[in-house]
Amino acid sequence: MLAVTPRCRQLEKHFSPLGIAFTIKSNLSQHKPMKFPILVFFLGITFLGSAFGKTVDLTAQNAGRDLIINRGDFLTVHLPTNPSTGYSWSVAFSVSGILTPDQSREIQYPPQKQGKMLVGALGTQVWSFQATRSGKTKILFVYGRPWERGVAPARKIAWPVSVRE
């Protein structure tokens, strides 16, 4: 059991970071011993979460670039879109199961000046994928009107992706 001396209490008043450390250590060891393992657990989760899975952001400007990522990494794709024209992006993979898409696709619009809403404003469609298996695949995005058959898409964008263990 840790005893807090009057000197520690005096240091607490003058050096707040040290005081916090003394207080936490004394409180955890004397009064509530279960708090320390809980604190260590949540700090460990926080640090482990940041150690796994980096995020790679992709845009139309870096299309075609060969990507080499690790299993557990994330890809976030940002592509310009204007849904009021009827055009939208669709995605396909050359090999399925290597990248797992997040089902929440969204369209983001830039902040409007002076609160005015612009009809037909350009937005950005965003997708997220996680590398769940090692291997090679290609992500292909096609910009077109889904109901038009036999018409060439307005735009195609692709990225070859290699996922390592």
Description:
With 165 residues, the protein is α+β, with helices and mostly antiparallel strands. The chain has 2 domains: 46 residues; 110 residues, Immunoglobulin-like (Sandwich), CATH 2.60.40.2020. Strands 1, 3, 5, 6 and 7 form a 5-stranded mixed beta sheet that branches. Helix 1 packs across helix 2. The longest helix is centred in the N-terminal third of the chain and has 17 residues.
Present the secondary structure layout:
Layout (H helix, E strand, L loop, with lengths): L5 H9 L1 H16 L3 H17 L3 E5 L7 E4 L3 E8 L6 E6 L5 E3 L4 E3 L14 E9 L3 E10 L10 E10 L1
Parallel strand pairs: 1-3, 2-9
Antiparallel strand pairs: 3-7, 4-8, 5-7, 6-7, 8-9
Core attributes:
2 domains; 165 residues; 3 helices; single chain; Immunoglobulin-like
> What is the terminal-to-terminal distance?
45 Å
- The run of helices and strands is HHHEEEEEEEEE
The CATH topology name of the largest domain reads Immunoglobulin-like
| Multimeric state | single chain
Backbone structural class: alpha+beta
Give the count of helical stretches.
Answer: 3
Shape: flat
Stretches with pLDDT under 50, minimum 5 residues:
14-24, 46-51
Domain module count: 2
CA radius of gyration is 26 Å
User: What's the number of extended β-strand segments?
Assistant: 9
Average residue pLDDT:
77
Main β-sheet description: 5 strands, mixed
CATH class of the largest domain: Mainly Beta
* Helix fraction bin: 25-40%
The CATH architecture of the largest domain can be named as Sandwich
User: Strand fraction band?
Assistant: 35-45%
